[in-house]
Amino acid sequence: MNQEIVVVPGDGIGREVTPAAVEVLRSLDVELEFLEAEAGDAVKESTGTALPEETYDLAASADATLFGATGETAADVILPLREAVGSFVNIRPAKAYPGVDALQPETDLVFLRENTEGVYGGNEHRLTEDVSTLTRVVTGTASRRLAEFACEYVADGGYDGFTIAHKDNVMRETDGRFRKAVEGVAADHAVEADDVLIDAFATRVCLDPTQFGVVVCPNLAGDVLSDLAAGLVGGLGLLPSANVGPNNALFEPVHGTAPDIAGEGVANPSAAILSAAMLLEYLEYDVAADRVRTAVETTLEEGPRTADLGGNASTDEVTQAIVDRL
Ligand code: GGG
User: Fold this and answer.
1) Which residue, by CA, sits nearest to atom 4 of ligand 1?
2) Which of 78, 120, 223 should be mutated for ligand 1, with most atoms under 8 A from CB?
3) Is 200 exposed, middle or buried (0-12, 13-18, 19+ CB in 10 A)?
4) Is the pTM value of this prediction over 0.80?
């Protein structure tokens, strides 16, 4: 029986790069079936809700979901969708590719971002006309679950260990709990875990990203630091991601809707297509996943390239080149 993939393009360039990723998946010898679902600004305008119940239910029950991008409705769309698939970790590889002009061509990082709590927990309140508050929840349970995953991830990937990025010299209770919980699990598994303050990490990774490999971080820090790493490797058009839960997962490029270029057909589809490769790997189509990665890498090296990488090719031209190289 074919595995069911829910496709949620979202808004902006999500509507251009997600079909590109589906085209790549369709051109492979894999038993997948695609079901399109809506979410985002446009559907909110027409129906009053950014995430229809049907889309949430489909994502929750499908074998995997491929998501595009969200803009103004990020909190109403992407956070519930990540919850729908039960994901507790957002895996964000940030890698420099041959042929791409990168600030730091040796960059090869993977962020493992806590995906359920922290300041992303939605505990925001307007107390008065002048005062708003945010309650940040950090649990040992969620931190340990992430750490268990990180230990498995470094063992499977042949890494020496991982780095915990935190800010526990200031947020002693919340980031302190996070760091100690992750360190404890690492010690139980005899996995080497060093740690670094988030602000120091930001400087050190720009100066020499080869000091780091797998980086385990709280939710918002993972979002910000992975975007920073995108700047080191040539831009957000290159970073894929996977939101993984115990029985389900959602795959999305790290980038957002890019309203400045949306609708022009010039967005870089690489991040979405590399996200599709992560989906293939998750569904245990390892050979197909490798073929897609190699085709993307060859295209990044030999062209054609979109404008963000100094070229003038369209999304369709780059996608076709990738399909031709499969
Ligand atoms: N494709 C992911 C996306 O739409 N990113 C925009 C965004 O605001 N992301 C926030 C997040 O990843 O937590």
Assistant:
1) 69
2) 78
3) exposed
4) yes
